[in-house]
């Protein structure tokens, strides 16, 4: 299975051969750093929402409840689902989920194994920047090809009432329409509160990156070169697998990278845009930053 550090997987119940999931779109109080919280919108109590994991060929039913103060909808980003199961309410108003209501998305997984997302597709300028997104992983039925397999969602937030250059404990409202972004997250947390990515020497490590938000994030790994093995949920042929140490992840993209753990130590893995590795423009390293940490036992 794929591990989403700092996040849960969405629980599944099988009924008559169908994998049944439940998502609740709701206001969420998310801790970015110790003592610093945002009042955003997420799924099942977290920003980003829990990761969904399925296999090719699975029949799924995903009941989405709307506990938000306004209507919402979900787009299964990168998924080849029937038209009446892919919410774009401005195109098909019948798919809108009003407050207090729910909708059952039902479809078969026809895509091959790969990394995808789910996210709101209504009032997106507000709702996506409030945090409404999560990971959707189609697993390989033949088993994992890597010893470690991680999923990381990249997001960014502007908040109200916290001046630039200040870190003051408190709970802050998200300002979704502002481009003055102060906090940049991996799976809903900022460094040094991000979970490290443990590896052991000699392991093959896969990291899946997804970006549902506004900015492009060039993600850089210290001390290693990696292969780019998949783009937007599609495996790349061996002859197309570039060897790099930095991969730009633009809005709407997913990229899978893979490297061999052959250089022991604690290695930064972060966005290379300087403002994106600071917490509200304070001095110490922060933001969209974690570490690949070699285990000694």
Automatic annotation (TrEMBL):
Tree of life domain: Bacteria
Domain (Plastocyanin-like): residue spans on this chain: 39-141, 182-282
Gene3D superfamilies: Cupredoxins - blue copper proteins (2.60.40.420)
Any one GO molecular-function label of the UniProt entry: copper ion binding
TM region positions: none
PANTHER family: MULTI-COPPER OXIDASE, MULTICOPPER OXIDASE LPR1
Name this protein carries in UniProt: Multicopper oxidase type 2
Organism, as annotated: Lucifera butyrica
Taxonomic classification: Bacteria, Bacillati, Bacillota, Negativicutes, Veillonellales
């Amino acid at each position: 299975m794929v591990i989403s550090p700092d996040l849960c997987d969405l629980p599944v119940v099988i009924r008559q051969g169908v994998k049944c999931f439940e998502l609740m779109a709701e206001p969420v109080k998310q801790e970015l750093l110790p003592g610093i919280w945002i009042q955003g919108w997420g799924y099942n109590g977290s920003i980003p929402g829990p990761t969904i994991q399925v296999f090719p060929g699975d029949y799924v039913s995903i009941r989405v409840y709307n506990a938000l103060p306004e209507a919402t909808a979900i787009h299964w980003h990168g998924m080849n689902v029937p038209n009446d199961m892919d919410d774009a309410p401005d195109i098909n108003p019948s798919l809108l989920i009003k407050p207090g209501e729910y909708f059952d998305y039902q479809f078969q997984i026809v895509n091959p194994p790969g990394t995808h997302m789910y996210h709101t597709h209504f009032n997106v300028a507000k709702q996506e920047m409030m945090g409404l997104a999560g990971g959707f992983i189609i697993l390989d039925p033949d088993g994992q090809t890597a010893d470690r397999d991680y999923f990381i969602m990249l997001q960014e937030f502007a908040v109200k009432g916290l001046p630039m250059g200040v870190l003051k404990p408190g709970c802050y409202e998200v300002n979704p329409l502002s481009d003055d972004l102060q906090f940049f997250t991996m799976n809903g947390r900022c460094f040094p509160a991000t979970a490290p990515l443990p590896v052991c020497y000699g392991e093959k490590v896969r990291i899946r990156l997804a970006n549902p938000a506004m900015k492009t994030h060039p993600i850089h790994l210290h001390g290693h070169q990696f292969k780019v093995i998949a783009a937007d949920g599609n495996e790349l042929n061996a002859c197309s697998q570039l060897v790099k140490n930095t991969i730009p992840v633009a809005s709407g993209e997913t990229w899978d990278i893979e490297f061999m753990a052959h250089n022991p130590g604690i290695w930064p893995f972060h966005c290379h845009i300087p403002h994106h590795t600071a917490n509200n423009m304070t001095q110490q390293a922060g933001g969209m930053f974690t570490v690949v940490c070699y285990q000694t036992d």
